[in-house]
Structure formats: structure tokens, C-alpha cells
Amino acid sequence: MAAQAAAAAQAAAAQAAQAEAAESWYLALLGFAEHFRTSSPPKIRLCVHCLQAVFPFKPPQRIEARTHLQLGSVLYHHTKNSEQARSHLEKAVSADPAAREEARALSGNSVDAAKPLLRKAIQISQQTPYWHCRLLFQLAQLHTLEKDLVSACDLLGVGAEYARVRGSQHLRLPPQLLLMERKLQEVHPLLTLCGQIVENWQGNPIQKESLRVFFLVLQVTHYLDAGQVKSVKPCLKQLQQCIQTISTLHDDEILPSNPADLFHWLPKEHMCVLVYLVTVMHSMQAGYLEKAQKYTDKALMQLEKLKMLDCSPILSSFQVILLEHIIMCRLVTGHKATALQEISQVCQLCQQSPRLFSNHAAQLHTLLGLYCVSVNCMDNAEAQFTTALRLTNHQELWAFIVTNLASVYIREGNRHQELYSLLERINPDHSFPVRRFLRETLKMSNAEDLNRLTACSLVLLGHIFYVLGNHRESNNMVVPAMQLASKIPDMSVQLWSSALLRDLNKACGNAMDAHEAAQMHQNFSQQLLQDHIEACSLPEHNLITWTDGPPPVQFQAQNGPNTSLASLL
């Protein structure tokens, strides 16, 4: 018996060593393939060779399917060999039905091509609850992308009813929560009701925490959409604690008896990235830009690890949204060169996915417009904002773009007719009392800890009082504006505030304070000028001329930037 036990132990150890070795060569080949794919320029032929080298090892079915899926993706995005790409995608689905939802995202890479595939998959998956519900969710998501919310809600209702028939309360809750969340006019009482449903639900720990993350993400994003940065803090803290809890739980600790309960709305590794993302959104709105940078770095690092083994389209979406937020942070903190390089990263990601570009084209042109304003390329800024307006029907983004376009017309000084026409589109009654509205803005921003909005309102009020000759009131506005801008840090508000403090102290006869403010202003100016020169010298600066079609692939260096210091002030 002892000999048999020893032999069994040796066999198990050999099997474990073999599995570990198999995983090692697979990860090595995958790592090389990813390195070649992400090289600049990409070395696609070498990437394909590395992936093809997996098959002679006769890998497990799961790895074989994943490799076919990755080959299909690489061939589709980087070559003209669409037939070979489709062949690999079909082999991926044949080897592992779980690859179906990712393969459909690459099949024709369009919503129209994906929907028939999903409908067929839904029909043949009636007896496999996990995939049936997941595919229903995917099809609902596609209808949402097309703004067909009626069809999306119908599919969510089908999912909820299917879960009821299957006796899975856990599976019923996500579509129910989404359906409730759509009724925006009743959102507050419904959010309260949803919270009670989740808390009262009895199930295994990982399922309950997964549902709590789902609900809290909906709740946090609703508050952020409403600009309630302070009010959302307790919910955001709960969400962060919840993801810490779920990260310590193991999926195989408690297996549900009902197969339908195997469904999770998102893998927990993806949930971690999503929580980082909403934390970045909160930090950005609140004006905690260093904190936004910290969480962006963590999220992007996690994403890079996940994308080594997972080509799920949602990861690229997360990456683009993170980059969009951090680009805005860079522009605020005076790091234009870094922002431009990150805009180029977004372009590269969008080159790989037409659907991603379609969803983010307006945001990409808006970011380029903001960059153009920061380097005083006003004609290009106008062209970028105009392009972005043409590409969006999103109300909040439209208002943001129009407001920035109005600021371009104001800075140019001779565009009064265009400015008035734009103001008519924003608000036909644009003869409003400026100081009263600014004070109301201050009141709202203070109530919700919107630090950037507070700093901008303070310095603008300070400027108005200075022009009116009310130096005392101007100083009462500019000093806290400078303190808040330093905390954010907002380089433009610091530059503006230091110039106002210099002029205020001169007017009041405070020579020493005026000299100190002038020195601060000079330091900020030099930092901005140096960054301005670096950004305009980058080959990516040529992106400012792109206003039509997909993002350009290559860039050529500039002859020389506009280095006028006056253009920065």
C-alpha cells in the first residue's frame, strides 16, 4: 500500500510538473507574441509565428481555442487576410463554445455582423444557462450601443424571466437592476429599493459580493453623472471595500448547486479594473489629480497583465476611458507632451478596433481640441471641436464641446458673430448676471467639493473685481483660488492667479508681495513654455490636423513649434 501511495504521489507530482511546464512555455510564447504585437511599429509576422508555435505542443482544448481566437484577432486587425482570420475564429468556437462571444466581436467587427451570430448562439444555448444569459446580456449591450433601449430592455426582461424559470434569484437581479436604473425619473427611490434587494438576498459570499459591486457601480456612476462628488463618497468607499473582499474569495470555494448561478456579470479581475476606473472618474471630478494619476497607473498595470491572456473587447474600452481621463489631468497639470503621447495611444487602440473608434471618435477629437487650445493652435482647436460636434449626439458631451468652442472664439477676440450664434444654441437668453451666476456656481461647487470648479470660479470673480477696481474683494477671491489651484494642481489657474496677485499688489503698493507673485508667475511661465516646446516638437503633434476618417498611422516631426511666451498667458 505504501508503495502504491508513493507511486501515486510521484505520478501526481509528475503531472503537476508537466502542467507547470506546459503553462511556462505557453506564457513564454504568449509574452513574445504580445511584445511583437505592441512594438512600434508592430512586428505582426513575428507575433503570428509565436502564436502558431503553440499548436505543435498539442495544448489543452482551452488554450487551443484561446490561441485560435488571438490569431484571428491579430490577422483581422493587422492584415488583409480576412478569410484566414475568420477560419481561426471558427476553429476557436469549435474548440470551445465559450469563445463564441469574443469571436462574434471580431466577425466582421460590426454590430450588424455580430447580432445574427448572437441570436443563433442564444437559440442553441437554451439548455446551458450560463452561456444563454451571458449571450442575452451581450445582445442587449449591442442594442444599447445602437441607442435601441427598448430592444435592450426587452432582452433584459427575457433574461430575468429565464432566470426565474431556472430558479436562480442570483441571475435575476442584474437584469432587474439594469431595468430599474433605466427609469431615470424615479432613480433615487429605485436605487434605495435596489440596495435593499441586494442586501436581503441570501446566497454564497462571492455571488452576493458580485451583486453588490454591480449595484454600487450603478449607484456611484449615477451620482457622478449628477456631479455629486461629495455625496457619492460613502458609496464609493463601500464599493472599494467590496472589491477588496471579493478579491480574497476563491471561485471554487463554494460551487452553486444550480448551474444557472454560475453566471457572473463580470469576471472579478475585470471588476477590479472597473472599480479603479470609477475611482479615477471621482478623483478627476473632485480635482484630486495626483490621486487620479495613482489609480490610473494601477489600473493600466492590471490591464496590461489581463490583456496578456484575455483579448476581451471590454478591456480595451476600459483602457481608452482611463486614458481619456488621465489626458485631461495632464492638460490641467501642465504636462501637454505626455498628454499628446497618450492621445496617440488612444489612436493606436482605435486603429485596432473600428467599433472602439466609432464609440470614442468624438471624445478623441475633443481631447485634441483641448490640446490645441493648450498650445495656442486656435484654428486647429476650432476644427477639432467642430469635428467632435459632428460626431456626437450625447447631450453632456455636446454641451462640453460647445462651451470649449465658445472659449476659442473669446480668446481669438474677433469672432463675435460666431460666439453669439453659439451662445444662442446653448441658451437663447444669454444676457445673464455674470457675478450672481458665478457666486451660485461657487455655492454649488463648495457644497460638493468640486475643487477645480471652485478654483476657476474664484479666479474669474477675482479678475472681474480687479477690472472694476475693487481690489480688496479681488484679493479675497484670488488668494484662496491660488491655494486651491496649488493643491489640485491646476497650472493654468496658478498662472492666472499669480498674474492677478502681482498686479493687485502693485496697485496696492505692496512691492515685496508684488515681487514674490511676479517670481511665481515667471516660474509657472517657464514650466509651461518648456512643456509647450517639447509637445510641439513631437511627431504626434501632427495629429492636430486630422479631422476626417480613422486615426492616421504615422507621424512626421515638426519643423519647429510656436514658442511665443505670450501665447501661453
Series of secondary-structure elements, N-terminal to C-terminal: HHHHHHHHHHHHHHHHHHHHHHHHH
Summing up helix and strand content along with how strands pair, one would put the structural category as mainly alpha
- Rg (CA only): 27 Å
What fraction strand? under 5%
Unreliable residue runs: 1-21, 556-569
Number of helical runs?
A: 25
Mean pLDDT: 80
**Would you count the extended β strands for me?**
0
Q: Which of globular, elongated, flat, extended, rod-shaped describes the shape?
A: globular
Bin the helical content.
Answer: over 70%
Sheet bearing the most strands, described?
none
End-to-end gap? 86 Å
Protein name: MAU2 chromatid cohesion factor homolog
Family: Belongs to the SCC4/mau-2 family.
Keywords: Cell cycle, Cell division, Chromosome partition, Mitosis, Nucleus
GO biological process, one term: chromosome segregation
Spell out the blueprint of helices and strands:
Layout: H1 2-37, H2 44-52, H3 61-78, H4 82-95, H5 100-106, H6 111-124, H7 129-145, H8 149-165, H9 169-181, H10 187-200, H11 205-225, H12 233-248, H13 268-286, H14 289-309, H15 313-333, H16 336-351, H17 354-374, H18 378-391, H19 395-412, H20 416-426, H21 434-447, H22 451-467, H23 471-487, H24 491-507, H25 511-537
Helix pairs in contact: 1-2, 2-3, 3-4, 4-5, 5-6, 6-7, 7-8, 8-9, 9-10, 9-11, 10-11, 11-12, 11-13, 12-13, 13-14, 13-15, 14-15, 15-16, 15-17, 16-17, 16-25, 17-18, 17-19, 18-19, 19-20, 21-22, 22-23, 22-24, 23-24, 24-25
